[in-house]
Design goal:
- This protein is mainly beta and 505 residues long.
- The protein folds into two domains: 2-329, Tachylectin-2, Chain A; 363-504, Galactose-binding domain-like (Jelly Rolls), CATH 2.60.120.
- The protein is 5% helix and 50% strand.
- The protein has five helices and 34 strands.
- The strands form eight sheets. Strands 10, 11, 12, 13 and 14 form a five-stranded antiparallel sheet that branches.
- Strand 2 and strand 3 (36-45) form a beta hairpin.
- The longest helix has 8 residues, at 46-53.
- It is globular and about 80 Å long.
- Keywords: Glycosidase, Hydrolase.
Length: 505
């Protein structure tokens, strides 16, 4: 089994950075051997380089560099095949236009590969004779006659490997409150969209993508949160053109609520038809204007199923055996959800969509001090926005904030327990966090409780700079442990906490 590790920047098998966002993975025949391989296409943005080199800085633009192509035999070890669409080529077509949200379909009748790309306010189709490119302009199409807007809201390409047909999955260009499916094909030598079927109308959605599992089609999307993370939503159908159920009422995928789908937006999925089982891989994008939603652009996780209900296993490290489709959680997996406090886009509590009172994945209980409430004039703010100096020591734009304008006593906790598909195995664990705090606390501690036994680490003095604290040899029993922080402080005393992890020893 090969390891897939999230929350880090990915490299190719020879150690070069992987830059691939807003794309997809497809299975094509290698032109040199005719052996089928995985090909991963996505966009390389210049700011992705800047963020990787200096993750403490927020980038505010997205400059197209190229469409990249990587190949793999196992979905884990990737080889860079080259830039299949270059910046120079795109600049020759038009300058300063958005380029992104792309996928590739193979047209057997023409023996050509067609790439569908959002380009400015239309859909650009590029073609190549090989999956390795180069791809060149075929035509640019307006979606006006099909859906009423020239552009798509978001889009991906889905290939049904059971019959080889490919489809463009996309949303309405204004408001994104409708989702469509169009078969990709050719007519009179021109590659385009053969039809248009509306499969959803309701709440605005983006990050539109699809997968197939055990003969059923799953339409998926995220919320309209710009570049930030979101729940993963889904509908299910027996036919690719629907009806998708529940009708016009996308459901939140189980397993994604405690950390907004591992701090991602739906990117694409890939279904592995292994010798032992089908395994669906959720491939989430971390966009965030290449800012502070945690390290790494690509977060891949296995999906489990209870009947037709998918369950997102939000894991940071797992092993995949592609030939069989089997997977398991790795020993170095971090079991804490939203441990770097990046899932929440706003100051919490927040009245801004999504309105919420508590930090995602964490429970705050106030014993003394101001109550936590949305729009409360004296409510404490539960998260802290890290400065650039902070981000040189801790990960991301946000951290936990424990403070109040009056004397306070507070507990912030998370219950970590086995899920239906990922066991929190009994044994020894280590709990780690980064802490920065003022004076003014009569008690400030990190704790872990399992099986009726509690271990704790007391912070005894002020820390002007971030310090690492840990509790070792935590004995987890019964597949459950409560972890958290206890604070009793004077008015305006503060403690910031970041990068909490619980890892098996």
């Amino acid at each position: 089994m090969w390891n897939i590790k999230n929350d880090v920047f990915w490299n190719t098998q020879d150690g070069q950075p992987i830059y691939s966002q807003g794309g997809g993975v497809f299975k094509f025949a290698d032109p040199n051997s005719s052996k089928f391989k995985y090909y991963w296409y996505g966009v390389h943005y210049k700011e992705a380089e800047y963020y990787r080199d200096s993750s403490y800085k927020t980038q505010t633009t997205n400059t197209f560099e190229s469409v990249t192509c990587y190949s793999s035999d196992d979905l884990v070890n990737w080889k860079f095949e080259g830039d299949v669409v270059t910046k120079a080529y795109m600049n020759g077509l038009d300058t300063a236009m958005w380029v992104g949200r792309l996928g590739v379909a193979y047209l057997l009748s023409l023996n050509q590969y067609a790439m569908f790309v959002q380009h400015g306010g239309k859909v650009l189709i590029l073609v190549a004779d090989s999956p390795l490119g180069p791809f060149t302009r075929h035509q640019e199409i307006s979606m006006e006659s099909m859906i009423g807007t020239s552009n798509t809201g978001d889009q991906t390409v889905f290939t049904d490997e059971d019959d080889g047909k490919s489809y463009l999955v996309y949303s309405y260009g204004r408001g994104r409150n409708r989702i469509y499916v169009s078969e990709i094909g050719s007519k009179n030598g021109k590659i385009g969209l053969m039809d248009c079927t509306q499969v959803f109308q309701g709440e605005s959605r983006e990050g539109n993508c699809m997968f197939k599992y055990e003969g059923r089609y799953y339409m998926c999307a995220s919320n309209i949160y710009g570049w930030d993370a979101s729940y993963a939503y889904y509908l299910v159908a027996d036919n690719i053109r629907g009806p998708y159920l529940p009708a016009n009422d996308m459901q939140v995928m189980n397993g994604c609520s405690d950390d907004f789908a591992h701090v991602t937006q739906t990117g694409f999925f890939y279904t592995i038809k292994g010798s032992n089982r089908e395994t669906v891989v959720y491939c989430g994008d971390r966009w965030a204007d290449f800012a502070g939603n945690g390290l790494g652009y690509n977060q891949w996780m296995p999906i489990s199923f209870a009947g037709t209900n998918p369950y997102l296993n939000s894991v940071s490290s797992w092993h995949l055996e592609e030939p069989t489709g089997l997977w398991k959680v790795a020993d170095d997996n971090n079991y804490i959800k939203n441990g770097s406090f990046e899932a929440d886009r706003n100051a919490i509590p927040s009245s801004v969509k999504p309105a919420q009172e508590q930090l995602t994945g964490w429970a705050t209980v106030v014993t003394e001090g101001n109550h936590v409430e949305v729009n409360g004039p004296n409510s404490p703010v539960l998260n802290y926005f890290n400065t650039e100096s902070d981000r040189k020591q801790v990960i991301g734009e946000k951290s936990l904030n424990i403070s109040d304008k009056v004397n306070f006593q507070r507990k912030v906790s998370q219950i970590v327990a086995s899920s239906p598909y990922v066991a929190l195995r009994d044994g020894k664990y280590v709990l780690t966090a980064h802490v920065k705090n003022s004076a003014g606390f009569s008690n400030l501690e990190m704790y872990a409780t399992s099986g009726g036994k509690q271990l704790s680490y007391r912070v005894e003095k002020a820390n002007d700079n971030w310090q690492t604290i840990e509790i070792r040899d935590i004995t987890v029993s019964g597949g459950k442990v409560e972890v958290g922080f206890l604070a009793t402080g004077e008015a305006n005393a503060f403690c910031n906490i970041d990068d909490v992890s619980l890892v098996r020893m």
